[in-house]
């Protein structure tokens, strides 16, 4: 594949080589694992065969006459089936942050695929709830390792002018995984009584793909140089850039590595004032990403559509439709993020998602009562609103929630800082997954107004507090972004003063 030369605004050259593209796509299969699990969980928990075996009380409530529409699936253990994965992912991402730094990005991704593969096998063969939860915890370990390593890997090998689009390949494959899971659920719902086993076992496929594919990719030059493998780092840099003329970039990575060695340690360095802007922005964007309400849609789309009166097949088919829109809209992000920038996409989508959430809330408040079925026309309108919401998320807060934290940290705090991003994402995902069905039962349509309030806050944050990082080399973020931001620059004042007097 020929290299495409691009000269950025900073005057630096950047090439998108076949090696970079292939490595990015293979690494992004970590996103396929994550997405498949997100999509498969909601569909499986709406299958009668699954409920009869593991959650018989929920099955009874689901089919009981006059049962409250908003409370059909309200069960803490059912929510724990979905959310337990994210508790394990928090712990795993902390461990993975050390593994990434000490061993490398590539072995961390390989470990992720092994955890996920074993978890999928245990879930597919589960005989009781305990076995099911153990499988989920292993899947969580895979998600934690994969989500820690993959965005860092892609950000470090990508040229600055293509970093956004390539990193969004991770989010793209998350959306593809969700879509594939929804299609599989639609088919396996007809395979009685073990269709759910096929759905859960299918998670092994992306895990195997990542494990085999990762054997063919190179480690990032930054990771190799950081671990003292200078010659290997130089060879890897020449390979991914497709040229021997890499002296400038090599020296920049070497300088960043030397600066990182002088630091007191990744986590301790995060406590310095100059690390707070990245830590705050990289962490809070994960809170915002989850409190858009997206995982309410992705986890529980079939459950949500059944609540509105759709039959089981129709609800799964509706989830497939939203999955298709999710994938298509992510392509928009790939082709616009390095042209339009990060902030434009975030602000536009906040407005779009706010309209969708508020309109959904109003529609359900008026037309979906405790025991009725929502009129068919309004039910289809809600499906449209869900799709409109998903489209906005998919070209903005979804992919950029992973991209921005992976590109804003200097090398000395990159792995530790990204752990806080991944850990916060998993924590918020756990909270949403664990409480949503209870929220739906108690707050009813007001649930959507709850998420709308969060969207207002995050839109304001993106407008006033988040700097633009488009086209900036990853090791020049402090000088060219943070030190020039109207608010965050004050955190670097002491550091600059010390440099002036020779400290």
What this model shows, in words?
The protein is mainly α and 503 residues long. The chain has one domain (21-500): MFS general substrate transporter like domains (Growth Hormone, Chain: A). It is 75% helix and 2% strand. It contains 24 helices and 2 strands. It has helices at residues 18-27, 29-44, 48-54, 56-63, 76-102, 105-124, 129-157, 163-188, 195-201, 204-214, 221-226, 230-241, 247-262, 266-269, 276-290, 294-307, 312-340, 342-367, 376-394, 397-407, 411-443, 446-464, 477-480, 493-500; strands at residues 4-7, 13-16. Strands 1-2 form a two-stranded antiparallel sheet. A hairpin with a 5-residue loop joins strand 1 and strand 2 (13-16). Helix 17 packs parallel to helix 19 (376-394) and helix 20 (397-407) packs antiparallel against helix 21 (411-443). The radius of gyration is 23 Å and the shape is globular. It starts with a strand and ends with a helix. The chain crosses the membrane at residues 20-40, 77-99, 111-127, 133-154, 166-184, 196-218, 279-303, 315-337, 344-366, 378-404, 416-440, 446-467. This is Major facilitator superfamily (MFS) profile domain-containing protein. It is a multi-pass membrane protein. Belongs to the major facilitator superfamily. Sugar transporter (TC 2.A.1.1) family. One of its GO terms (cellular component) is membrane.
